[in-house]
Write a structure and sequence with these properties.
Rossmann fold, 4-stranded parallel sheet, alpha/beta
């Protein structure tokens, strides 16, 4: 019998940087146990070029990356989510669509690198910092014994992950 593959949705406002990075990281670190998606409440319509550059430097195939509306995942026929994580403060405060299957959720807010100001190296550092924080959180998440802990304990751990740097 094959192990259940958990669907994970990362939400942000613009779906151009943080949630795209999180989707890429989860699909890599989840090693087939997790299938990640990303979306935005007010998608920019394009993925930020520095997000693509960073992912390519980290040897990700970026063909998956597209900025899309979260409504796409609330429609009939969309994959049923097991987990939904907000990665920006704006999306956490917004009213989310009702997700079929009542997925577990948590807020894992990280700074928006697309809003970074300064020199090009300073902006690149903002993208790298966001990537590092998401990589750390997703690494912890993918190592959780999801099948063997109760929902209340799992929810606490999901919330705790959101406080990690």
């Amino acid at each position: 019998m094959s192990e259940h593959v958990y669907n994970v949705l990362f939400l942000c406002t613009g779906n151009s940087a943080r949630s795209i990075m999180a989707e890429a990281l989860m699909n890599r670190l989840g090693q087939g146990r997790f299938k990640a998606f990303s979306a935005g409440s007010n998608p920019k319509g394009v993925v930020h070029p520095q997000t693509i550059d960073l992912l390519k430097r980290m040897n990700f195939d970026t063909s998956f990356a597209r900025s899309k509306d979260w409504a796409e995942f609330a429609e009939p026929g969309a994959p049923e989510m097991d987990f939904v994580f907000t990665v920006c403060d704006n999306a956490a405060a917004e009213v989310c669509p009702v997700w079929p299957g009542q997925p577990m959720s948590a807020h894992w807010g990280v700074p928006d690198p697309a809003e970074a100001e300064g020199t090009e190296p300073e902006k690149a550092l903002a993208f790298s910092d966001t990537y590092r924080m998401l990589n750390s959180r997703i690494s912890v998440f993918t190592s959780l014994p999801i099948n063997s802990i109760d929902k209340l304990s799992l929810q606490k751990r999901l919330n705790d992950i959101g406080t990690k740097e």
